[in-house]
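The following block was generated as part of the benchmark described in Methods. Ligand: nicotinamide-adenine-dinucleotide.
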Amino acid sequence: MSTFSYSESTPAAMSLITIDNFINNAYVKPQNGIYFDTFEPSRGRPYAKIPDSAATDVELAYKAAASAFPAWSKTSAAERSNIMNKIANLLESRLDEFAEAESRDQGKPVELARTVDIPRAIHNFRFYASKIIHATEEAGELPGVGLSYTQRMPVGVAGLISPWNLPLYLLTWKIAPCIASGNTAVCKPSEFTSMTAFLLCSVFIDAGLPTGVVNMVFGTGMGAGQAIVDHPRIPLISFTGGTVTGAKIIANSAKHFKKLSLELGGKNANIVFADSNLEAALNTSVRSSFANQGEICLCGSRIFVERPVYQQFLDGLVARAKNLKVGDPRSKDTNLGALVSREHWEKVTGYIQLSLEEGGKIECGGQKPSSLQDEFKDGYFLEPTIISGLTPQCRVMREEIFGPVVTIYPFDTEEEVIQLANDSVYGLSCSVWTENIRRARRVAGAIQAGTVWVNTWMARDLRMPFGGMKQSGLGREGGDHSLNFYSEIKTICLAD
Ligand code: NAD
């Protein structure tokens, strides 16, 4: 069992951790022998070496998954459920270690990983361990003919590709329903955050997951990721990541008619009506704007506030944002850690610069905190930033920034704000704040987004469908929706 401890980051232990692929329940070096550095965002320095896997590694992983498939697909739901519960229990017993690893790799506060990311990863396995033993098929009498019923078959070897913002949370959200449904998998975590996926492999071994059921290939999108999408015998791709990548995956997989689930980007509206509980709206909006450094696809990055309470809301949000502590991810009172990479920090700060060129006013933030010294002076930190004065046509109000940057804009009528919220190529989520139940139902019904929260944010019921409209994705995950995606459903008609 490999264990992980933050103390490895002390100067005395500066040798880089090396990650290897996980194929047939064994750690395997990349065929080309090439590794690249991955960086610790809070310190801005390399701390681990990641295999730069290519098509040959994907082929090895595919072969392992394909030879595991016949036996795994024939196991009973109860057997699969049992192993998944063991995975969940082992993960839970290593909660602190996984939380520290996630924080060090991604930049987020340890406390966030300990209370959100890793518990959700545990829950993903438990949820589908339970779901699969309670799953039923459809059946109906066909008068004069006989009985129609459905039967599910696993699809085969699944390609699971995940992003860097919620690394273990989102990867396990794919692995759990995939293996619960009897498929085997070739996974490709983000090249920026491979560590907890690597640690998860040791959990699989300890839980007794049969050889080859889940294989992990580390590397870049253009290398290992594209090789999975191009592989002619991987019939299903579940992808979470950017919209531009999603479009490439649609194009590259089209010739093989792959089953696709795409969870993509967003530019979510957070709508605050004057009749809302302003205190509650403010307290949640500071989280929906800046949690995980704003690197959550569901963050409400476009805030629209009804004019009579606009100034009061802006003042309240600025005061709360200024109170947030940015810095050492290990410290329990840290609210924002570091952004995931230097490239991403440059992208996000580029948008702050652009907002000035577009006529915006930075109400707070916009800078790397000057208080960060010593070990954190090279980290990719950024203050929570609120920008006013932009028009809805500005790029900063239209493009996904995916950092601790929100825009705020006043509106006058319900019709106007519905039009503003829907005026986007994205349609992932939206929050609505009002105490008027009829208005809540009207607005929620009119919003073009896969999830609408009323007087809350990021509350997630795993039984419910989750996904995006428009360029925010294709398909729905969660509950039966994932089981349907990871299955081929056959109708059998049996004559009397
Ligand atoms: P990304 O698209 O750059 O990368 C995601 C994954 O795809 C990585 O593992 C990457 O290596 C791989 N990849 C890149 N190019 C590929 C290709 N051509 N073929 C196959 N795989 C390829 O996204 P990111 O920067 O890691 O993540 C941020 C994005 O993810 C944001 O847009 C965010 O909104 C989105 N996201 C969406 C959801 C959701 O549920 N809708 C959740 C989290 C993140």
